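Inverse folding, one chain.
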């Protein structure tokens, strides 16, 4: 796990360094062209660098080991960093819209658009490649910071592509007002991207249920259930940065010894770590079976059975997340 976190930190450091270079390139393009659309790209690059630096700090902090004050680790700071990044993106988009709206009525003279188009296109391609690699790494390591940063860079690349289309139209038509219109359109797109990042980060801070992950876990448990796993319920997942904490209740035969029940818990843990994520932390509470459990218990050799077996109940999503034992 520490190796994975250190790799995330190195990747984010590369993102920041690349962001600084691209920011300089875009401001040079703006200086040469005086284009609002290119200024839109340049201003977003400032946000990229600031947000990337904050994200780098959050990854360093989240990689710290657990301590007495932070028994679950420091991973929650990643959600805070992603919230800040989303907020900065929304602010940048709003500033771009306001400036461009003003320049619709007071257009500025443009110059050397060919050079500006070339510099902006090169920056866009680099942004997309770095963003794709960052987002993929974030998905692999469950890091919201890397996913948010990667999406931000890819969005920047998409907006750059649109800006280039607008600049090409301006270059061939000479319609200067198109420059501000293009900037307004992509300013709105930038605001929407910031909103999506904010939504995801606030969901993490509020421990909103990740239904997609929960369904994956339920599917894995269904496909690999053992006869002593009578039911699993009250399944919950909490994210602390790259670390996932899973709570659930496992119902086992009442006559198992403490050691035997612990072995069943260990098997559940091994299965989820193998199929979902090797760094998941599990807190599994064992419940003894009750009379109503007999009708769904798959252990047909149980000598303590008090009611006949009726049929196997598939663990579906709604039943597993509920705080209630299975039955028919």
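Residues assigned per position:
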């Amino acid at each position: 796990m520490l190796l994975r976190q250190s790799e995330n930190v190195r990747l984010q450091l590369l993102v920041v360094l690349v962001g600084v270079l691209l920011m300089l390139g875009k401001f040079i393009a703006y200086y040469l062209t005086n284009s609002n659309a290119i200024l839109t790209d340049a201003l977003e690059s400032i946000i990229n660098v600031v947000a990337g630096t904050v994200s780098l700090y959050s990854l360093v902090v989240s990689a710290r080991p657990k301590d007495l004050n932070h028994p679950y680790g420091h991973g929650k700071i990643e959600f805070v960093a992603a919230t800040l990044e989303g907020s900065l993106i929304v602010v940048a988009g709003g500033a771009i819209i306001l400036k461009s709206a003003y320049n619709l009525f007071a257009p500025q003279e443009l110059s050397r658009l060919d050079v500006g188009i070339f510099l902006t296109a090169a920056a866009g391609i680099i942004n997309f490649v770095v963003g794709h690699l960052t987002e993929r790494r974030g998905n692999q390591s469950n890091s919201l910071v890397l996913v948010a940063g990667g999406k931000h860079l890819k969005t920047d690349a998409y907006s750059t592509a649109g800006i280039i289309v607008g600049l090409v139209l301006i270059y061939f038509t000479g319609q200067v007002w198109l420059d501000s219109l293009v900037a307004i359109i992509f300013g709105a797109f930038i605001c929407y991207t910031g909103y999506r990042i904010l939504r995801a980060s606030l969901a993490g801070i509020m421990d909103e249920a990740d239904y997609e992950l929960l369904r994956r876990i339920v599917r894995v448990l269904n496909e690999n259930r053992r006869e002593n796993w009578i039911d699993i319920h009250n399944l919950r997942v909490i994210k602390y940065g790259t670390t996932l904490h899973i709570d659930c209740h496992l119902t086992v035969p009442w006559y198992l010894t403490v050691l035997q029940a612990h072995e069943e818990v260990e098997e559940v843990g091994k299965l989820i770590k193998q199929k979902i994520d090797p760094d998941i932390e599990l807190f599994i509470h064992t419940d003894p079976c009750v009379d109503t459990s007999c009708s769904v218990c798959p252990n047909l050799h149980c000598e303590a059975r008090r009611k006949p077996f009726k049929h196997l109940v598939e663990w579906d999503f709604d039943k597993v997340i509920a705080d209630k034992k299975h039955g028919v």
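The CA atoms of residues 86 and 196 lie 8 Å apart. The chain has a mean pLDDT of 79.
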